[in-house]
Write a structure and sequence with these properties.
Blueprint: E1 5-12, H1 19-32, E2 37-44, H2 51-61, E3 65-70, H3 76-84, E4 92-95, H4 107-115, E5 120-127, H5 132-148, E6 157-164, H6 165-172, H7 181-187, E7 192-198, H8 211-225, H9 228-257, H10 266-299, E8 306-308
Parallel strand pairs: 1-2, 1-4, 2-3, 5-7
Antiparallel strand pairs: 3-8, 4-6, 5-6
The protein binds uridine-5'-diphosphate and magnesium ion (MG).
Magnesium ion (MG) binds at residues 97, 99, 101, 202, 207.
Length: 312
C-alpha cells in the first residue's frame, strides 16, 4: 500500500526572516514522520522581499518543496485558495501560516484525527498570543459572528488544520471570490474534529496582515454568511415608520379636538429629519455592502493570477 500523500499549503508574504526556520522544522517533520508522502506548497503572495527566491532555492534542494508565485499580492485568503487548487495529488491538505505561529510539530496529531475519520480537522488554540486592540477586535468579531450566522466557527480556530480529499474538492468547487476560510470550512460540513495546541509567537518578522485587512475579512465573514444586517434595517425602518404614524395620529387628534392650534415644534422637526436621514444612510450603506459584493462576484474575475508554478 502506498503512503498517504499530504500537501502542506502555506501562503507566504514577505516572510524572508522566518523561512529558513520554517524549512528546517518542516524538514525535521518530514524526516521524523516517514508514514506519509510529504509535499509543501508555498504560495508566494507577491512578496517584495527575498521570500520567493528563498523558496525557489529550497525547492531546488528538496523536490518536496514547491513554489507557486502569484502575479501580485492578492491577500491571504486568495493565496490559500491558490495553494489548495494545486493539491490534486494529495489525500489531505494541511493549511497553515508561514510565520510558525502554527507549529509544524502539531501536524502529526492533526493527521491522526484525520485518519480516524474527520474530513475537517481544526487546530484550536489553547492560548492566544494576540493582545491589545487586535485581541479586542478578534473577540468582538467572534461575538458578532456567532450571533449573526447559522454556521458558527469555534472562536479559537484559525487557518491551521487539515482538509481531507472530499473537503478539498468541496472547497475548491466553491465559486465565490470573497472568501472567509474558517466560515467556509464550517459551511462545507463533513465530520470535523478539534485538536488543541499552543499558539506560538511569530518566529520572526512582523505580522503581515494589517489591522485594516483583518477588519475587511471580518466584514466579508459577516456579510457573506448573514442576511441579518439587511433584516435589521427592515426592522428599524418598520419601527421608525410605526412611530411616525403614531406621532402623526397623535397630532391630528389634538388638532381636531382643538387642543393645539399654533404651528410649533421646529426642534422636533429638525431632530426627526436628521434622525431619519441617518437611518436611511445607514440602510443604504448596508445595501451597498451587499451590492458591492454582488458586483465583485458577477465580474467573475479570478481570485488570483499565477505568475509561475511547477507544471501539473
Ligand atoms: N500572508 C499572505 N498574504 C498577505 C498577508 C499575509 O499570504 O497579504 C500570509 C503570511 O505570510 C502568513 C499568513 O498569511 O503566512 C498569516 O499572516 P500574519 O502572520 O501576518 O497574520 P496573523 O498571524 O496576524 O493572522
Ligand atoms: Mg501570524
Amino acid at each position: 500500500m502506498s503512503l498517504p500523500k499530504i500537501a502542506i499549503v502555506i501562503p507566504v508574504f514577505n516572510e524572508e526572516a522566518v523561512l529558513p526556520e520554517l524549512f528546517a522544522r518542516l524538514g525535521a517533520l518530514f524526516a521524523a514522520q516517514t508514514g506519509y508522502a510529504w509535499q509543501a506548497i508555498l504560495v508566494d503572495d507577491g512578496s517584495r522581499d527575498r521570500s520567493a527566491a528563498l523558496v525557489r532555492a529550497q525547492a531546488a534542494k528538496d523536490p518536496r518543496f514547491q513554489l507557486v508565485e502569484l502575479s501580485r499580492n492578492f491577500g491571504f485568503q486568495s493565496a490559500l485558495s491558490a495553494g489548495l487548487a494545486r493539491t490534486a495529488e494529495a489525500d489531505a491538505a494541511v493549511t497553515m501560516d508561514a510565520d510558525l505561529q502554527d507549529p509544524p510539530e502539531v501536524i502529526p496529531e492533526l493527521l491522526a484525527a484525520w485518519r480516524e475519520g474527520a474530513e475537517v480537522v481544526r487546530a484550536t488554540r489553547r492560548s492566544r498570543s494576540e493582545t491589545g486592540l487586535r485581541r479586542v477586535g478578534f473577540d468582538l468579531f467572534h461575538l458578532l459572528y456567532g450571533r449573526l450566522t447559522d454556521y458558527p466557527i469555534e472562536p479559537n480556530t484559525g487557518t491551521f488544520g487539515v482538509l481531507g480529499r472530499p473537503a478539498i474538492e468541496a472547497f475548491n468547487g466553491l465559486p465565490e471570490r470573497h472568501r472567509f476560510f474558517p466560515g467556509l470550512r464550517a459551511w462545507i460540513g463533513f465530520p470535523a474534529a478539534d485538536v488543541p495546541y499552543d499558539r506560538q509567537e511569530r518566529a520572526a518578522g512582523k505580522p503581515q496582515q494589517s489591522f485594516r485587512r483583518l477588519a475587511r475579512y471580518a466584514m466579508d465573514g459577516l456579510f457573506s454568511f448573514s442576511y441579518l444586517p439587511l433584516r435589521l434595517v427592515t426592522y428599524c425602518g418598520l419601527f421608525v415608520a410605526l412611530m411616525g404614524f403614531a406621532v402623526g395620529v397623535f397630532f391630528a387628534v389634538r388638532r381636531i379636538l382643538g387642543v393645539e392650534t399654533a404651528a410649533t415644534g421646529f426642534t422636533t422637526l429638525v431632530t426627526l429629519v436628521l434622525f431619519l436621514g441617518g437611518v436611511q444612510l445607514v440602510g443604504i450603506g448596508v445595501l451597498g455592502e451587499y451590492l458591492g459584493r454582488i458586483y465583485d462576484e458577477v465580474k467573475h474575475r479570478p481570485q488570483y493570477i499565477v505568475k509561475r508554478a511547477p507544471r501539473g
